[in-house]
Each structure stands twice: as structure tokens, then as C-alpha cells.
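Appendix C reproduces, verbatim, an entry submitted by the partner laboratory led by Prof. M.T., so that reviewers can inspect both the input and the predicted structure.
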Amino acid sequence: MNRPAILIVTGAGGVGKTTLSAGIAAVIARRAARTLVITVDPARRLADALGIAMLDGTTNRPTPVPGAGPLDAVMLDVTASWEAITRRHAKPEVADRLADNPYFRAVADRFPAAQAYAAGEQVAEFAQSGNWDVLVVDTPPAEGGIDFFMAPRRMRDLVGGRLLRWLTGARLPGRRIFYRTAARPMLRLADTLLGSALLEEIADFLLDLRALYDGLAARAAAIDRLLVQAKVLVATTDSPGAMREASRFFSSLPEINASPDALIFNRSLPDTWITARGPKGAGVEDAALRENMERWSLEARRNRDARLEMAARLAVPMATVPWLRHPPIDIAGLADLIDRAAGLTAILETVTA
């Protein structure tokens, strides 16, 4: 079974990662490559363009995108992903207890690292299925995309960590080991203040979490190997805040298993605006239009210079995706957006080569 190529689009929230991911997937599928785009939380218009039903309680089941060739899309459901994780790595009775435990559900639903790890698990699951040639991954935006790459290691460290081993016992000799440590002042106080029922619920959660370790550790290592081999595109915009987030991602590279292949500037003002000039008339309206165009010319120049400086400083190829007056609302529009991008075509060609 051939392993699919994996293309990861990462970056901070609000820079258009999901739109870029969908457009890139549409372009790759147009070349007859069986493609799956994995997204987290698309806006309504984007979900409609991809043909993803915006329903409560969605499952992680890929859906064919109408009129897009061999392109499927899936919207990540974190809760469903974590239920699948427990079924995969724990005995049925342990998985049932975890699914019913409110502490486990809170961790699965609300913690960014848990969301990021669930996304990684789904990527590994789809990669092993052999159903696609290319996976395009829209990462969760937590920590500017850093969490996605760090999540396998963090979850492995959490479940096998020293604190959890100390609380549950080194070898898990029995489910009541937690209470045999209750003579410790901290746990005795917790039992008095919170009540034994609540403490038992917490203990059950910690013990069952430990039971996931062997399977989760092996899976996390497999996810790490996939991420090392993936192509990574870091998305940003020309705004200072977004560029700082992208720079932070690059500064974190020593800690994460990623080697970015390109820096994508989305919603970039066209370079033609730099030399644009207003009408030469002497009227008030002409003067106002000239002043407005001069301001946009200066802004377009500033953005271009900032892009070039950042790409040179980070020593990474740069691609620019133009600002559009109206965002794409269908598959054709998404693909057209990517076709208009400068510097991106050559990178995408390497994915399907």
C-alpha cells in the first residue's frame, strides 16, 4: 500500500488557512489525484462550497465534494475522534468508562492540545486507509499551529508522565491504589472537601487515562513520523500581528517535527497598486481619488517589502495569494484563487510528482 503525500497548511487563526486548504485540495484533485481535505471548523459558506453538512454531532466520515473530481472533504469532530481513540487504544470496558466520564469529555472537548492530537490521529487513520493519494490538512489554529506538531509528544508525556504515575501507582496493581494513597494530607483534604464520590470519579479518570498509554505512545510515534515527511505551508497575511505569529512558528522549529516548504501570504495587495496613480484632473473628486490611491500605493509597497524581508530572513520560499473583493463561494472559485497565487504552483507540483 502506497502512503499518501501529506500537505499541511498551518498558521494562526484568521489568516484564511481553511480557504487555502480547500483551494489547494481542489487544484490537486483537478490533476486526477484522489485527495482528501481535512478541516476543523469551516465557515458556513466554505462548508457549503465543500459540500460538508453543518450538522451537530458530525462524524469523521469523508464526503465527496460535488463537481470537484476525486476530492473528498471531512470536518473534524473532536469528540468523535477521542471516542475512537479510546476504542482503539483501550479495552472496551475502559473505553466505556472514559466516554461517560465528565472529566475526560471536558479534556477532549475544550483543551487545544487534545483537539490538535485528535487531528493528528485522524490524519494517521486516513493515511493508513490507502483511499487517497494526497491528504491536505488544515491544522487547528491553537498556538499558531504549533500545537498540532507538538501534540503527539505532549499527549504521550501527559499520559505517561511522572505526576500521573505518582497519583495512580507505578504499575497500576489495582483500581483502589489511588485510595491507598489517601493518607497523604492532600488527598485526605480533597476527600473531606469534595466528597468521596467526586474523588472516586477523578481517580477513575486518571486510572483509565493511564490505560491508554501503550497504544497512545505507539500511535504518537507513528504520527510524528508522518509529520516529519509531510510538506508544510505556513500561512499568514501582511498584517504585523499575523506575521509575528508566523515568525513564532519558525522560531519554534527546533522543538517541533516540521520543516516548512513555503511561507504563504494570503490576501496580499497586488504589486500593480504600487505604481498606480489617480486622475490628473484639478477637480475636488480627482484630488480625493489621487490621495486615496497614493495611500494604497504606499500600503502595497510596505506590504511587499515586509513580505520580501520576512521570506529572506527566514530563508524560505514565498508565495502570495491575492486579495479578492469577494471571497470564493464554490469549488471553481477556490481553485481559481490558488491559480492566481504567485509562487505556489511549483510547490504543489512536487506533491503529486
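Confidence is low (pLDDT under 50) at residues 170-187. Additional entries are available on request from the coordinating office.
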